[in-house]
Amino acid sequence: MTKAELINAVADRTGLSKKDSEKAVGAVMDVITEALVEGDKVALVGFGTFETKTRNERQGVNPVTKQPMTIAAATVPAFKAGKALKDAVAKK
């Protein structure tokens, strides 16, 4: 499902216009992004939790030159599905 399809689905389910649905979907994404940037966790009970995780510096191999290289440490977003979401997908 693309963002446009998500906006259309929200509009259909809520009765909001597509323009209002686009604002709502965009606002939710912006709020989650801002929270993660600040290092906060966003927990949506039954759906899941968005959080950041830190990857340590590690050794890798350049696929072109086959030379060893150091991959820098990084902070990355992560999502952990909640029980209700897991159960819904499993019953599919």
Please supply descriptive tags for the structure shown above.
92 residues; 2 domains; single chain; alpha+beta; HU Protein, Chain A; 43% helix; 3 helices; two-stranded antiparallel sheet; three-stranded antiparallel β-sheet; elongated
Describe the structure.
- It is a single chain.
- This protein has 92 residues and is α+β, with helices and mostly antiparallel strands.
- The protein folds into two domains: 1-40; 41-92, HU Protein, Chain A, CATH 4.10.520.10.
- 43% of the residues lie in helices and 29% in strands.
- It has helices at 3-14, 18-37, 83-90; strands at residues 42-44, 48-55, 58-61, 68-71, 74-81.
- The strands form two sheets. Strands 1-2-5 form a three-stranded antiparallel sheet. A two-stranded antiparallel sheet has the order 3-4.
- Strand 3 (58-61) and strand 4 (68-71) form a beta hairpin.
